[in-house]
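To close the section, here is one more complete example, presented without commentary so you can practise reading it yourself. The ligand is iron/sulfur cluster.
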Amino acid sequence: MQTTTRAIHGEPTYTRVKREPTRLLSLYNTAPQAEITLEEFELYALDRLQILRSIESLRLRGMKGDEFRMKLEEIISACMPMTLGTAEEVRKDQISHFILRIAYCKTEDLRRWFLKHESELFRFRLERLDSNERAKFMEQSGLAYDVVSKEDVLRLKAQLQAVPIFSQQPGYGQGIHTVEVTRTQFFRIPFTQALDLVAHRQVFLEGGFAYVPVERLVSIIVARFRSSLSRGLLEAFGAMPYVLTDGRIAPLVSNMAKQYTGKDFSGTKTGDSLDLNDLDMLADRSMPMCMRVLHKNLRLEHKLKHWGRLQYGLFLKGAGIGMEDAIQFWEKEFTKIMTTDVFNKQYAYSIRHYFGKEGKRKDYTPFNCSKIILGPGPGHGEFHGCPFRHYDEANLNKLLERAGVGAMDRDEMIKLSKGQHYQLACMKHFETTHKGAESLISMDGVGNHPNAFFAASMAFYKEKNGEGGRRGGSPNPSSQTSASSAGPGEDAGDPASPHGESMEIGTGEGSPPA
Ligand code: SF4
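Output:
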């Protein structure tokens, strides 16, 4: 068994720790009966959510192999240690799983997301066990398969030996090797339960059965875990009305999927203070598509509806625009179509409100991607939301084309969006418009938070030009003909489309759904 510890030089390394593997791994067939405080309820769930989101983010960044495992091991150690199998570790593991199961059972999208990342976490933990521990776990979990007799193993020795084994386990013979047939336990499993191995020609078949060495059982056990969890999610969905009658936990459960677990950008600045005069250029160069659309339409129509004002206003706040500047910015735009008096009465209050200066005096934080993607989509005349989620193919293509994204990259982003990988599409947008960023800056949070996208872009231009902000960077070359030279209040519509995006996006056929 292995856990990650820090070596002298600061690099993670694997060491063996005695633990109870079967206590640490579960198919989660039975919900735990335990008393728990409301505080624990939330903390446990958020810690597990952090792990699942980290898995997503590591994968989005293309991380795999040892690098992925070591990073994930570090995150697990920080959020929810699972090393020794203590009662407390097992309790937290079980409870947090079932809280998230109920929080992620509501919609098909949420169920798919949870299933995918829980299965990946399960696989990761299963792969850490050695062959004996896996066999023990299977026995205790009721995953009983026929053990192939010694006589049959000897009879089939040549065939079994011929199947190459690819192991990814650090410290357990990584790479391709052959099985020590006489020293390995084989299981006879109906081939329909071993389709993953069959598809990759990684198992010997005879008479409708797959002969699976104990160390290849991972994909079969993970498949069982997936199907059992999939059923469990549907059962949880059936129990939802009952859960929601409990006023203590209903709000937590209902909003769990929208909880952001990364940096929240409250009261933070991107670095240097932003100059309002730079916003047109920054919208083209450094903002993610969701905010670019809002900025452009605000400039064009001199107004935004409620959700758009909130989404963009909080983004600007997180990007470093202070309250006085924010009021000045919105007032300058809105008073092109209304009097200052009307602006002050109807809009200035809400700006002061989300800066925590009115009403409940709560300091509101910018929306993260989950909140935007899972939140209400834009209706007619609205421009909030995430274009990768809420725009149809034709309008998304048009939008990206105007943002200067080339045809091949556009196709890839649209494909990702159609596959419901909205955040991956957004990351792709960042990569194509910030060539070489990975070697210059940290891209943590890009695709998870609009402000992380913006902060990473600002850092990129600062690194690249040694100055940062407007003074150092030039807009995305393909966007240079856009509004970068327009001052506040001037029409920032894209010259390539005289009517601006608002005339073509969000109206008529193919507009974002209400
Ligand atoms: Fe904005 Fe996030 Fe959508 Fe990117 S993925 S466009 S940052 S909401």
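Once you have examined the tokens, check your reading against these statements. The first helix runs from residue 21 to 24. Residues 288-290, 369, 372-373, 386-388, 422-423, 426, 447, 450, 453 surround iron/sulfur cluster (CB under 6 Å).
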